[in-house]
Amino acid sequence: SQKIEQNSEALNIQEGKTATLTCNYTNYSPAYLQWYRQDPGRGPVFLLLIRENEKEKRKERLKVTFDTTLKQSLFHITASQPADSATYLCATHPPGYSGGGADGLTFGKGTHLIIQP
Amino acid sequence: GAVVSQHPSRVICKSGTSVKIECRSLDFQATTMFWYRQFPKKSLMLMATSNEGSKATYEQGVEKDKFLINHASLTLSTLTVTSAHPEDSSFYICSAGTSSSTDTQYFGPGTRLTVL
What we know:
The structure holds two protein chains of two kinds. By secondary structure, chain A is an all-beta fold. Chain A is built from no helices and eleven strands. In chain A, a hairpin with a 2-residue loop joins β6 (56-59) and β7. Chain A is globular. Chain A starts with a strand and ends with a strand. Chain B has strands at residues 4-7, 10-13, 19-25, 32-38, 44-51, 57-58, 67-73, 76-81, 90-96, 106-107, 111-115.
């Protein structure tokens, strides 16, 4: 099975700075990586999906990169705000990617991001 | 769009009883839904894939006789925890993908199960 590693359990960032979270994968090259936000006691909320043939993807203050050489995805939040404080999860599909939403996801442990005012 | 609901949000039950959790896709049809379990300060672990009109597919180590899954319609999947024990206490979350979601999954708000 795929191993997803999010090296930082917790990350403290000053408001207004850019927060950068790391996701590394082993065992096989995934067709995509996804990033989710999870608040305490709630289900994950989808943020961004980046495919193996995409280097970078953006959505408002969010940016995700995918480096297949380093087997790594970076997730950036620019101009961070206290409201961005949450746990961020990296996820991908199992081996034998089926596509079309037919794959259950393997998640990393998440990084708890704290944006300090 | 793409809203998934779960009911109940919290449930407390006695050891040995069974608990049913519902997962509904409110504004789309989902031929496939997924059930995850999350222990405190841990990540989500996929338990099973629920397929409309057919048997669920369980991940290794998940007891299919203990966690009964029924996907009777394109908008509803249920997870029944049978003969619950305290170690089954966890946060159970379902998800679904839309036909146009291209691999994106939409998660329900989760159900907190506490077995006394």
